[in-house]
Design goal:
The chain has about 475 residues and is an alpha/beta fold. Helix content is about 45%, strand content about 15%. The protein contains 16 helices and 16 strands. It has a seven-stranded parallel β-sheet, with helices on both faces. A six-stranded parallel β-sheet has the order 13-12-11-14-15-16, sandwiched between helices. Strands 8-9-10 form a three-stranded antiparallel β-sheet, with helices on one face. α1 packs parallel to α4 and α10 packs across α14. The protein is globular and about 70 Å long. The N and C termini lie far apart (about 50 Å).
Amino acid sequence: MAAFCVALPAVVASLLPLLLLLVSWKRWRGPRAKRHVLIVVLGDVGRSPRMQYHALSFVQSGFAVTLLGFCNSRPYEELLQNSRIQIVSLTELQKLPVGPYIFQYGLKVVFQSVHLLWKLICREPAAYIFLQNPPGLPAIAVCWFVGFLCGSKLIIDWHNYGYTIMGLVHGPSHCLVLLAKWYEKLCGRLSHLNLCVTNSMREDLAENWSIKAVTVYDKPASFFKETPLDLQHQLFMKLGCTYPAFKARLEPLDLATERSAFTERDAQSGVVTHLRGRPALLISSTSWTEDEDFSILLAALEKFEQLILDGESLPSLVCVITGKGPLKEYYCSLISQKRFQHIQVCTPWLEAEDYPLLLGSADLGVCLHKSSSGLDLPMKVVDMFGCCLPVCAVKFRCLHELVKHEENGLVFEDAEELAGQLQMLFSKFPDPAGKLNQFRKNLRESEQLRWDESWKQTVLPLVMDT
């Protein structure tokens, strides 16, 4: 292994002059395309909705887009079908089974640097390189370097701070975390333009990092909306083929009648109605990472179950937790140990087109995202609000920029408080005069700005003026 450690830098060093030569040739071969944007996501494109929205908005404004990232999950169909968007797959280096963690991480950074540099120089020079951060190590330096040589302007879209996410795993004083913070702060100043997701982050970037940024709030795409009842029924029937929680508890007397756990289609008229005594549909989405503690939700569900057993007028619950991530197996193991009688928990991975339909069919959303920096907002809540779905969200520093307590949802601090909110919201469910419906009414009347309109007002003027 020692020989390998010595050989690796030598190999990289021998490749760099060739790459530099290619980049220089690329720059002087011809002018960069003024209406071409390179969007870089050093993560899974299919799980990066904001960057997919940016790509579609650039195309709608007359740009051609090359989107580079990992292709582990399927992106939105609209992205795949657009002839002006080219998706370039990046290779993700899997974790090595040998060597200390610092060595493995160093090898990963070297590989990603060389690989990303190669992929970028093989593309047509662009007016802009548009980078998602985090992850920014090593992408910020590589993108700036390519931009410098090719005459492209670097735009960084700050979703969070990468070093704070690393700090959740290793602790804030770990040498890698401190190195990542220094790198992010230094290289973040190299960009031509900076966007960020909250006013709190904009202020922090300016005060502590001397970086001037423009706030571009996440907004729901147009396809996040309330789902008509007939489409809800189709979705429930489809999901019921895979997930028992969506299947009817009792089969209808008329075998020609379609029935799910929540809805029923009349065999003669074809009219879809909600079932009497149906369960409430609770939904949460997650990346199953350290910044979301799902033990809070599980503890609240146990308390809710006990209230039902004690005779409270509460519905059964179907709790759907969507998403992929490193801690999914851990939490699924905890869920399997629960012996709920009135609550069913399922953890599906939904197709991109089914996710907004399910949000638009749910009764309540729950968000357990606690920002590692305290400066970013959960996009899942943005999507839920787009579907006029009220939300219970765990409290953190800048959540007030999105969730208005007692107006479009509720804010809680622990499992006890969440259980009390579930009891209050689902009391006498479904109650047309209840708090849950009042929150939904407030969301309908708020006339939320959608992503396309917001982007044209905030981002488009910036890229047209620079």
